[in-house]
Amino acid sequence: MLIVGGAPEFRSRLRESLRKYVALVDSAESAGKAGQLMARCRFGYLIVNAELPDMGAQAWLEELQRNDVAARVLLVAERGKGAGLSQAMNGQLSGVLERPLDLPEVIDALQNARLPQAQAATSSRASDGAALSGQRELIGESAQMREVMDLIRRIAPLPGTVLIEGETGTGKELVARWLHALSTRRGAFVAVNCGAIAPELLESELFGHTKGAFTSAHQVREGLFVAARGGTLYLDEISEMPFSLQVKLLRVLEEGALRPVGSDQEVPVNVRVLASTQHDLPLLVRERNFREDLYFRLNVAQVNLPPLRDRLDDIPVLARHFMATLAENLGVETLLLEPRAIGRMQQYHWPGNVRELKNFIERSLMLGSLALEGLTMRAPPEDGPPQVAEYPLDWTLEEVKQHHMARVLKALDGNKSAAARQLGVSRKTLERRIRVTGEEDGA
Known about the structure:
It contains 20 helices and twelve strands. The chain is α/β, with parallel strands linked by helices.
């Protein structure tokens, strides 16, 4: 859970009150600070104050919706203003809490919260209470996908670690959520993006820290392993984990206990670990950029998600599914998917995979016609890599990098997180390089 906005005393008091009911409770003073935390960890619940210091709550929630962030949202408002705000934010809220807050009312609201109407139809990141909705998004009738689904059902009830591999946009987190939902574990599903957290902070984020362990450690923090006790910890982009921290993760997996930063006491943990990557881990092992012993410890079971270009037979069913759910969410009529249009879609390479197909259908619904003219990239030869545009020979390597980053970002409809994952860089690096390019262009 993430508490956003409000006075420091309010956030501190509410955070302490909810710790016994929620696996992990964090807080942020503003929307900007909340965004930084949400890049590091997926929060299933948001308690948002109606007035934020840097932007309006409604504008911020709309921004989260555009970025496909799914969470149950409870808005905190002054008494007598809740109904009006709820109506103004139609479809964005799971409920409204009015000051002064009463803890039993807060707990009751959390237990009864459902995904906001605006998110429910399109969410591909169902939170804990509705984790099985991930199953509905993992769609496919091809032999490859039937094999993947059978494997998930077979290994989900087992306790071993699982390594999920696949290109960006293939649905790795959906697989992780489905594995958790079909398991016998009753604890929380906690997801963390290893590439979105500064290396010097990742150990504290995972294992927790004691008060005074370092300069900014003003209070005890349990960490995400403890937050996921009895449940599942999903380590997204495990290849981004610093080499020095990999040995500590290996010890936790082997011993079932961790040592918070600044502590000399071990804490036992009962957590199932799932990890994912879009990179070639065996290659990273050979290059000595990833520990071989950790790779084998994570790779007890492996789920490989095929790219969309390798299961073109699934495009019709995926397109119809996204067409129906997105049209309902947008409040528009569905578009006719004629055989000619399906054929054109099956000729496209889909570098962004299922996520790009979903964005294509959404864009088409908004425009009122299938945006087939945007599917211009030819499929790569079967025996060779995708064809890319050549660059002028007088360009510097830095210019080539910046231009390529801009192209990938545009191909993924401006989704910076997806572009950063595909490029193999952090979102912060991508934003910095794109900003530099924009300034040079006079943007």
